[in-house]
Known about the structure:
alpha+beta; 7 helices
Amino acid sequence: MQQNWIPLFPEQASSFAAEMDYLYFFILAVVIFFGVGCAAAILAFAIKFREKRKFEKGADIHGSMVLELTWTVIPFVIAMAIFVFGAIVFYKLYRVPENAMEVFVVGKQWMWKVQHGTGQREINELHVPVGQRIKLTMTTEDVLHDFYIPAFRTKADVVPGRYTSIWFEPTKPGKYHLFCAEYCGMNHSGMGGYVYVMEQRDFDNWLAGNSSSQTPVQAGSDLFNNKLACASCHQQAGGRAPSLTGAFGKKVKLASGEEVDFNEEYTRNSILNPSGQIVEGYQPIMPTFKGQVTEEQLLALIAYIKSLGAANAAAGTGNGMGMSSGNK
Ligand code: CUA
C-alpha cells in the first residue's frame, strides 16, 4: 500500500480526501507563515528598538495609508480564500448525491450496527464497493456518537432522535479505520472497526456469501402490514388515515396549516409522536408507537414507506400493500 508523502496523515481513500488535505495544508501554511513572521518580528523589534539611553523618547508617528491598506487588504483576501475554499469542500461533503447506495447505521454503546439495502448486517465493519457513491443514514439508540473514517476525510455526529447523513466515494480498495469520535462513555475508545473497500465483483461475492434474513424493505413491510398493523388505517385513500403510497419525498399539509417535507425525520416523528403532526383533514386518533419500535425497526419502516413511493412511480399503480419489486 502506497504511503502518503507525510507519514503522519492517513491515506487519501475517498473522492474528496485530496481536496480536504489541500485546504488543511493551505490553512496550515497561512498559520505557520504568520506565526513565524510575528514571532520573528517581535524578536527583531525587541532588539532593534531596545532602550539604548535612559528615558529615551519614541519617535512621533502619524500613520501611513499604504501600511493601513496593506494590512487590511491582504488578510481580507486570505480570509475570503479560506472561506470560499472551505465552503466548496463543505458542500461537497454534506450534500448527499441522489444516486447513492444507501446503508443504515445505528450507533449503540459501544458498537456500530450496519445494515445494507439488501439486508446484510454487520457490526463494527462496513463493506463497500470501490468507485460507488455510498450514503450512510445514521442514528443512535442511546447517546451521542460520531461516525468517523479518517481515510475518507469525513465524519458526522450521530444524534439521538435524529437522522444524519454522510456520503463518500471510496477510490482505493483496502482496509480503513473507523472510529467513534465523540466521547460516549466507558468503552468509547473501543467503539470502532474497519471499513473494507472492495472491487465490485469481490463486493458482490461478499454480498452473496452473507445470506441475509430480510431486507430493510421486507422487514418494514412485515411491521407495517402484520406486526404493527399500520396498514389497517393507512391502507387506502379515503380511510381513517392518509395513504402513504407515493407520499415520501413530497410535501404534507398539516392541520396547523404548516407545510412540511415527508422525509425520514417526519416519518420517525409521526410514528413516535403522531399527535404532533396531524395531516390536514384527519383526526388525531393514531396512537404513539414510542417504546414499541427500535431504531432499526424505524429505519425499516422508513425504507418500506420510501419504497411505496418508488414502486408507485415505476408502475403507475400500487395500493400500498404489495411488496416492493426489489432494491435498486
Ligand atoms: Cu460512541 Cu464514542
